[in-house]
Write a structure and sequence with these properties.
Mean pLDDT: 94
Distance between the termini: 14 Å
Structural class: alpha+beta
Oligomer: single chain
Largest sheet: 4 strands, antiparallel
Strand content: 25-35%
Radius of gyration: 15 Å
Strand order of the largest sheet: 2-3-1-4
C-alpha cells in the first residue's frame, strides 16, 4: 500500500471553483477509475491557508497509481469538467505531490 499526498495551490480567489469541481466532478471520476481518497481538506492554518487544498490518495502499488492516474487524465468526462471549470481562467497555480510508503512500519 502506498499513499500519495497532493497539495494544490489555487490562483487567488479561485478556491471556490476548485472545491466545486471536486464535489461535482472529480470525486465521481475518481470513483469511476477505482481511485480512493483517504483524506481531503483545505489548509486552515499555516502557509497557504487561504489558497491550498490537500488530499491523500491510497493505492495498492506504484503501478496501480500510474495506471489509475493515466486513465483519469484520459477520461473524457474529466477533460470536459476541467475545461468547463476553467472557462473563467485557470484554477490551479501549482501542484506538489509526494508518495509515501508505510511498508517499513508494517509490524505496527
Amino acid at each position: 500500500m502506498i499513499y500519495e499526498i497532493r497539495e494544490y495551490t489555487t490562483v487567488p480567489g479561485r478556491m471556490p471553483a476548485l472545491v466545486k469541481r471536486f464535489n461535482e466532478h472529480t470525486f465521481g471520476v475518481f470513483r469511476k477509475h477505482g481511485m480512493e481518497v483517504a483524506f481531503i481538506s483545505l489548509t486552515e492554518l499555516g502557509g497557504n491557508s487561504s489558497n491550498e487544498l490537500v488530499y491523500v490518495m491510497k493505492f495498492d502499488s506504484y503501478e496501480d497509481m500510474a495506471s489509475k492516474w493515466a486513465a483519469f487524465q484520459a477520461d473524457p468526462d474529466w477533460r470536459a469538467a476541467r475545461s468547463a471549470s476553467e472557462a473563467d481562467g485557470p484554477i490551479v497555480a501549482s501542484i506538489s505531490r509526494r508518495v509515501l510508503s508505510p511498508a517499513a512500519f508494517a509490524a505496527r
